[in-house]
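Lab notebook: predicted structure, single chain.

Context: the supervisor wants predicted structures on file for every construct in the current expression panel, including those that have not yet been purified. This is the next one on the list. No modifications to the sequence; it matches the entry in the shared construct table.
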Amino acid sequence: MPDDHHAPGAQSPASFHLGGPLTVDDLLASPRGRSLVLNLVTSGESPDSDQTVPFAVVSEAMHRAVCVLDRQRGIDSAVYGGDDGETHLRNVQPTEVAQALRSLDPVPPTQTDLEHAMVAVIAGAMYWQPPHSDAVLAEDPEMVDALGPWAEAVVDSGLLETWSRGPHVDDQWELTWDDPPNRDATRRVLGADPTDLLSPLGGVEPSLPTDEAATSLAQWRAEVMAEEESSRRAYRLSPFDVGAGEWWSTPAVELWSTTGTWPSGEPIGLGLVEDDFGLERARARRVRLRDTSRVFTVSGPEQWAALCRRFPLDLTAQRREVWFEATGRKGRWVIPDWSRVAEQFDGVHVSLAGYVRTAGVVIDVSDDSIVDGRGDAPFRGNTDCNTASLMAGWNPDTTYWLTDAISGITEVVDWSFDDDAYAWVAHPGLTVRR
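Prediction complete. Output recorded below exactly as produced.
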């Protein structure tokens, strides 16, 4: 294999290229991109701003428009009254919000602005229910047009230039969360002296058996296939019985996953967690990778679709109803078969840009079935005859390691969330490195 497989952003085979930097069109075309821009708008007020229309007016219009959409969609939402206590909801339309938005001068974001906006984006990422009404508002054509100048300000800031990179192999951190219900599983890491977690200089961590990843993936695939068979059997018995299932498309949870860092040195994965449970303590371990590691980088829907075409795993029966809630689509669903992907790649990385472009998007895989159909897949009420996929539950800038590519630990840092500072804080006294 080429020597550059271990360089930042390198991947194999060469036909799968890293995507370029995020563009204005990228931001406005994807659900997470629009959400990012909209969150920057709502956080863009500054005390000395001299705007034609105050930010407060735009924020109020957005809030009322979202409440109107909630009401139309049968969703309960809070409506704040005016100074006179009036709580009547005026029927604010997206056109009015867009008009007010056009009266604002875009505010160039700072790095902190972007990080906080991404936290809000991730908090709204849900794949087991319809999109929030603010996402519905943001996809209105008038709103997309009005968000354009703000998207330009984000791109022109230059802060997105690094979001398309592959994993920086010398800056990959595994996060072990202090989750009370799972402390038995994490005690070996969280309960240890940080120094004891470091690998011998030049050595291999003895607690990383060479067949650990393969065993986890084999078990994962067996469980997925069993669930698909069970779901198809249930569908044959009762086609009208709508059942909920798992919603994520990530590999086995037992696998190692790592994240890079923001310019401040904070691991990106601390704040950007889909389906976050509000955990506020984590131990970060910088990993050492084997020199031959091969990484496939997902920089957009095209790369995810390529994995699905090459390594398809049919989950139609078990994802059909839950992903319909999130996308409005019923049809054949596949995800990459990670046990087969592991035969070609050691890791799969979703870059920050790849997440923005791909998460929440119905990914077109094929105009027909690409798996060996048995004729018993659910079909009643299908919205199309195509095969599609959804990238769900995969956090931004996260790499899942499908093989035993990690050879050791070189640094340990404990982090906790400071409510007063509203920021993650490292504990220097609990930081050790080799």
